[in-house]
Amino acid sequence: MQVLVLNSGSSSIKYRLFGDGGDGGMTPGATGGVAAALEELAAGLIERIGESEGRLTHRITRGSTREEQVEERRVADHADGFDALIRVLEEAELISALAAIGHRVVHGGAEFVAPTVIDDRVIERIRAQIPLAPLHNPANLTGIEVATRLRPDVPQVAVFDTAFHATLPPHAYRYAVAEEVVTRHGVRRYGFHGTSHAYVSRRAAEHLGRDDLAMITLHLGNGASAAAIDAGRSVDTSMGLSPLEGLVMGTRSGDLDPAVVFHLVRQAGMSLDEVDELLNRRSGLVGMCGDNDLRVVQQRADHGDEAAATALEVYAYRLRKYVGAYTAALGRLDALVFTAGVGENDAAMRARVVDGLGVLGLTIDPERNTAADVHAAPDGVADLHPDGAAVAVLAVATDEEREIATESLQAVRAG
Ligand code: ADP
After folding, report:
1. Closest among 129, 249, 140, 144 to 190, alpha carbons compared
2. I need a labelling partner for 190 at 20 to 30 A (CA). Which of 111, 125, 131, 205 fits?
3. How far is 112 from 148, CA to CA, in rounded Å?
4. What is the dihedral of CA 376, 379, 381, 386, to 10 degrees?
5. How much is the pTM?
6. Which of 285, 291, 344, 346, when mutated, tests ligand 1's pocket best, judged by the most ligand atoms within 8 Å of its CB?
7. Would you kindly state where each structural domain of the chain is located, as residue ranges?
8. Which atom number of ligand 1 is nearest to the Cα of residue 219?
9. How crowded is residue 179: how many other Cβ atoms within 10 Å of its Cβ?
10. CA distances from 381 to 215, 241, 245, 269 (A)
């Protein structure tokens, strides 16, 4: 039995194929059941769809060996790309019984609060969410339409980035705007990165052997968000109506006074599209210092670059503020979890965040922090706190596609 996970962008398709291969060398002690049993069979990326020269990369895993195939050719459209990836997987004899295709969908609005088996009505309802996510949902839908047309025999499931945050209480998701603005225009906080926050919080709970934890998870990749999680339920999160709100990100500003938008339109003569582009693509780390890769920013700061040093401190200060706020939201704190590219790998940033938060009982062990390698840890979790610390500080390897595969299988079995 296999499950294929698709993440369709406007000009790309990222995929991973998992198989139900016994224990597959997975987590000892995991209570994830299905997740623990899934092993990766293949992964790949179809890029530059629709351009004159496309690129198809496939990585096929057989036991401990991995073989990579790269092909450069024009990929006319998403259907061409999907067809190509299915052919590669079939030629490699990796697909014998495809049990589900799981699709990442960025925005589920207030309507989709769980993974959903796709039919025509669901496609129409996802289409209806496009105004809430004009940058992401159209591409996700293209992937769904192509895959359901070309493989109508396989159950397909939409897994929403917003769904894990459907448990936010009204006082956390409500913006202080008129009721009409909420009901007519859907203006409220939804939150994103839900599959990652769900996966790492479960992994952390398994690692610590408790399911009643008050936890803050920090997903720090190119996009970044924080979540406050009480006994497995998301009770607050830093992204809002869109992924623009909250933490400082690679290219997004995160929190700012909404009047900045009026000011730029009225005083700087920018169009709304220009402001949108400025705040989503030319702000955050790249806006402050010209680089969006935290490794590069760190190196520059180490060599005395002031713009890079300022960018690092703005990034870390925003994180400390959110950890403080979410400790207050939870009323207690048992664990702080770092994940994604920066959270899993950047010991200096983790120390910068935690060292300022002794007042909350947070401490980090400098040696454990520097030596931590979540990817080598048997359960993907590294302890960063000193023995006997009041609050656990963990780095956890996220795996959004594995979580989508697990949730897709569960939805198909339940449906
Ligand atoms: P995405 O949001 O695109 O999935 P990732 O989770 O892969 O992003 O994170 C990407 C970011 O992680 C990079 O921009 C880089 O800043 C950071 N990163 C990756 N590896 C390291 C590392 N070893 N040290 C510091 N930062 C890292």
Report:
1. 129
2. 205
3. 19
4. -100
5. 0.94
6. 346
7. 2-160, 210-400
8. 6
9. 8
10. 15, 31, 28, 49
Residue reference for tokens 């500003």: 253
Ligand 1 atom closest to the CA of 293, numbered from 1: 16
Contact (Cβ atoms closer than 8 angstroms) between residue 311 and residue 285: yes
Q: 194-208 vs 400-414: helix axis angle to the nearest 10?
A: 90
CB 140 within 8 A of CB 190: no
**pLDDT at residue number 172:** 98
Percentage of residues of the chain with pLDDT beyond 90:
93
CB distance 107 to 137 below 8 Å: yes
The protein residue with its alpha carbon nearest to ligand 1, atom 13, reads 293
pLDDT digits (tens, 9 = 90+) for 153-170: 999 999 999 999 999 999
Residue 294 CA: nearest ligand 1 atom is: 16
Write the single-letter amino acid at 85.
L
Whole-number Å distance, alpha carbon 66 to ligand 1 midpoint, is: 23
Could you read off the pLDDT of 107-152 as tens digits, one per residue?
A: 999 999 999 999 999 999 999 999 998 888 999 999 999 999 999 9
207: exposed, middle or buried (C-beta count within 10 Å: 0-12, 13-18, 19+)?
Answer: buried
What residue type is 190 in one-letter code?
Y
Residue whose structure tokens are 């992994």: 203
**Using an 8 Å Cβ cutoff, are 196 and 340 in contact?**
yes
The answer to whether 2-160 and 210-400 have equal CATH topology is: yes
Among 239, 234, 161, 232, smallest CA distance to 194 is for 161
Q: How far is CA 59 from the centre of its chain?
A: 22
Ligand 1 geometric centre to CA of 340 (Å): 7
Q: Could you tell me the sign of the dihedral formed by the alpha carbons of 184, 185, 188, 190, in that order?
A: positive
Rounded CA separation 147/292 (Å): 33
Task: Give yes or no for a contact between 104 and 161, defined as CB atoms under 8 angstroms apart.
Answer: yes
DSSP string covering 302-357, please?
HTT-HHHHHHHHHHHHHHHHHHHHHHHHHSS-SEEEEEHHHHHH-HHHHHHHHHTT
The CATH code of the domain at 2-160 is 3.30.420.40
Q: pLDDT digits over 237-287, tens only? A: 999 999 999 999 999 999 999 999 999 999 999 999 999 999 999 999 999
CA-based nearest residue to 132, from 197, 182, 198, 78: 182
Tell whether ligand 1 has an atom less than 6 A from the beta carbon of residue 375: no
Q: Evaluate whether the domain defined by 210-400 bears CATH number 3.40.50.720.
A: no
